[in-house]
């Protein structure tokens, strides 16, 4: 249900941004709002508190956002609150940002390696991703996980390419156990 809500409202905001030719401006505002909400978790808790009436919450939204973000975004927040959906604000705004990035052919790549990558290695990874995907640019997010032993894991959306030593070892162990199982079941009884 939450996914349907975030898709419905996120898509509505995206369509408005495209229609009004304000995609870049709204995307920038939404990314800033997400950061503000991350930094002020109590604000989201306040906006989701069941004992505070909708009118008061809308007044708070007006006070906080009016004049700081576009009228379209302020109105959007008021609509979300009026419909009782503010608890899904992160998912809604994230969906919007993802839609904007897809529209602008900007991919988001999560790269996990066993050791920190050097700048030249990062450039090579990004270059290779640009050559092998439909994207024209990338937001690169790097992480280090020593448990990978070596190699790296790259995730773009729901696609994962895992060339880590850890995964290769796990796959080999699985293959060996399947061989052992098939040998044991294939023996003839005497």
Describe this structure in words.
The structure is a single chain. With 190 residues, this protein is of the alpha+beta class. The N and C termini lie far apart (59 Å). A 4-stranded mixed β-sheet has the order 2-1-3-4. The protein contains 8 helices and 4 strands; from the N terminus they run ααααααβαβββα. The chain has 2 domains: 101 residues, Peroxidase, domain 1 (Orthogonal Bundle), CATH 1.10.520.20; 80 residues.
- pLDDT averaged over residues: 92
State the share of residues found in helices, binned by percent.
55-70%
Count of spatially separate domains: 2
Assign the structural class, choosing from mainly alpha, mainly beta, alpha/beta, alpha+beta, or little secondary structure. Answer: alpha+beta
Number of E-state strands: 4
* Sequence of secondary-structure elements: HHHHHHEHEEEH
Overall radius of gyration: 23 Å
CATH homologous superfamily placement of the largest domain = N-terminal domain of the delta subunit of the F1F0-ATP synthase
Shape: elongated
How many DSSP helices? 8
In percent, how much strand structure appears in the residues? 5-15%
**Order of adjacent strands in the largest pleated sheet:** 2-1-3-4
CATH class division of the largest domain:
Mainly Alpha
Q: Distance between the terminal alpha carbons, to the nearest Å?
A: 59 Å
CATH topology value of the largest domain = Peroxidase, domain 1
Please tell me the CATH architecture of the largest domain by its name. Orthogonal Bundle
Spans of at least 5 consecutive residues with low confidence = none
């Amino acid at each position: 249900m939450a996914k349907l809500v975030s898709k419905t409202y996120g898509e509505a905001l995206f369509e408005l941004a495209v229609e009004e030719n304000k995609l870049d401006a709204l995307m920038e505002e939404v990314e800033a709002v997400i950061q503000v909400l991350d930094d002020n978790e109590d604000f989201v808790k306040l906006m989701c508190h069941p004992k505070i009436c909708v009118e008061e919450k809308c007044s708070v939204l007006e006070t906080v956002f009016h004049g700081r973000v576009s009228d379209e975004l302020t109105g959007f927040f008021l609509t979300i609150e009026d419909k009782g959906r503010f608890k899904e604000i992160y998912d809604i705004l994230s969906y919007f940002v993802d839609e904007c990035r897809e529209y602008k052919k900007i991919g988001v790549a999560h790269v996990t390696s066993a050791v920190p990558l050097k700048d030249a290695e990062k450039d090579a990874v990004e270059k290779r991703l640009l050559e092998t995907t439909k994207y024209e640019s990338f937001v690169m997010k790097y992480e280090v996980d020593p448990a990978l032993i070596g190699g790296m894991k790259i995730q773009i959306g729901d696609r994962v390419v895992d060339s880590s030593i850890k995964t290769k070892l796990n796959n080999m162990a699985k293959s060996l156990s399947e061989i052992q199982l098939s040998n044991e079941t294939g023996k003839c009884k005497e």
